[in-house]
Amino acid sequence: MRRLRRCKIIATLGPASTNPAILAGLFRAGADVFRINMSHASHDSMRDQVAMIRALEKDCGRPIGILLDLQGPKLRIGTFENRAVKLAKGATFTFDSSPAPGDATRVQLPHPEILQALEPGHTILVDDGKMRLRVVSATDTQAVAIAEVGGEISNRKGVSLPDTEIPVSSITDKDRADLEAGLEAGVDWVAVSFVQRPEDVVEVKKLTRGRALVMSKLEKPQAISRLEEIVEVSDGLMVARGDLGVEMPLEKVPGLQKRINRTSRRHGKPVVVATQMLESMISSPVPTRAEVSDVATAVFEGADAVMLSAESAAGQYPVEAVATMNKVAEEVERDGYYRSIINAQRAPLEATNKDAVAVAVAARNFAETLDLKAIVAWTSSGSTAFRIARERPEAPILALTPNRETAGRLALAWGVHAVVTKDAHDVDDMSKRACKFAAREGFAETGERVIIVAGVPFGTPGTTNMIRIGLIEPQPS
Fold first, then answer.
1. What is the Cα–Cα distance from 269 to 347, expressed in whole angstroms?
2. Which of 1, 32, 262, 455 is most buried by its number of CB atoms within 10 A?
3. Cα 119 from chain centre
4. Is pLDDT at 458 greater than 80 in this prediction?
5. Is 83:155 a contact under the CB 8 Å cutoff?
6. Cβ-count burial of 290 within 10 angstroms (0-12 exposed, 13-18 middle, 19+ buried)?
7. Nearest in space to 391 (alpha carbons), one of 433, 357, 429
8. Distance (Å) of CA 468 to CA 365, 378, 387, 428, 434
9. Looking at the chain, which residues constitute the CATH 3.20.20.60 domain(s)?
10. Is 262 exposed, middle or buried (0-12, 13-18, 19+ CB in 10 A)?
């Protein structure tokens, strides 16, 4: 089941993909990681999905990553006496704390923290940005606004606040319960929704206590303004283009996608490009040309992973959507321009862990100069493989780890093929078994060479300090 591409594919599970046969079909078509969206999943359904994935993992003998996506705070207006009202452009409308049913002049905003944070000039977006209002006056209990884009406003529609930093955590009580349930079930990654500040990420990392890696979903302007700080404390990033495109002008999103990708790459953190990548395949067996180009752009940029949402969760063609994404990624990575584009994005060394990063850079340079067939990394925590992936080497990366959890986390990393095996006990064993696995997994043949990266003492995280070249010898039959 070795993939022929470096960019990974994340498929979201849902009603269209929650039986073992479809799940296996998604994996065979190219899915490397499965996303469970806790906006729609109960704890019981989440546990069932995790169990199915682990059963599939056992059957196919390959590590599969699981990403638990927390819902985050959902900000909604109250209800109306007659379900909905129409607001004309220029109309005055009030959001307040009164629980009374709304009318053509006002509605409840049952979030006191928002009312306290709103200021004149701030924008209020309703129903995914279909309506836009500008605040003209505000107190702790009400905000009077003018409709700049009118339309119908109805019960419990969502609210977005692109100009307002809300002084509350991005993780709710529901998220805490979902997180603990997911960690107990054994997920590999946790995605935090509506991150505004680095403290939001740190809070979740304290709760996970190393039991899963934490991914920040970048979907708010407040997060973009503190991008460097958020990237620094995160284990991975997601370009959540859906909400980002609601709260910011659409024309800014492509540039932000590139900025987030480059920043993540510089810090050595995996980055996922998500939302509406093959949207038309929810109801069509083939994508549009524009969608194919969108996926290809993310692959050309060197994104660690591209993600399907409703296409695989609720669409009519979930397996076909994954297969299409797989074919696009493979074709891009065969393109003559691909390697020059990837090489042009190489970032300077990280300010921290320079010894380990220098070993990763040296491994890439050795592999390219000597035309070595693979970079084999012994890794306990996964950090060695993540650092090598940061360098986007031309040679494939084979990660050998004694920890299944590490292998699951590395399912998201660019170009990494992880194998679970017992740790090496000395240098000769390290070299001999690295060559054995490189041959067994199809990376090299007899007489070819690989480069081996490890840390001494073995099994100690953060000690990457050794490079060795190994020759593939005839394997016993």
1. 12
2. 32
3. 33
4. no
5. yes
6. exposed
7. 357
8. 13, 12, 17, 10, 10
9. 8-72+169-336
10. middle
**Edge-to-edge strand order for the sheet containing 449-455?**
416-420, 397-401, 375-378, 449-455, 464-471
Architecture of the CATH domain 8-72+169-336 = Alpha-Beta Barrel (3.20)
How high is the pLDDT of residue 464? Answer: 81
Instruction: List the structure tokens of 424.
Output: 């090496």
- Cβ-contact 268, 231 below 8 angstroms: no
Q: Which of the residues are catalytic?
A: 35, 76, 217, 275
Report residue 192 as tokens: 């935090």
Six token digits for residue 236:
């991975």
pLDDT digits (tens, 9 = 90+) for 78-123: 999 999 999 999 999 999 999 999 999 999 999 999 999 999 999 9
- Cα distances (angstroms) measured from residue 270 to each of 124, 174, 198, 306, 417: 32, 27, 17, 11, 15
- Helices 173-185, 198-208: crossing angle, 10 deg rounding: 40
Considering only the top CATH level, what class is 84-160?
mainly beta
- pLDDT for 351 equals 57
Class at the top of the CATH hierarchy for domain 354-471: alpha beta
- Indicate whether 470 pLDDT > 70: yes
What tens digit of pLDDT does each residue of 267-299 get?
999 999 999 999 999 999 999 999 999 999 999
The residue with tokens 């009164």 is 98
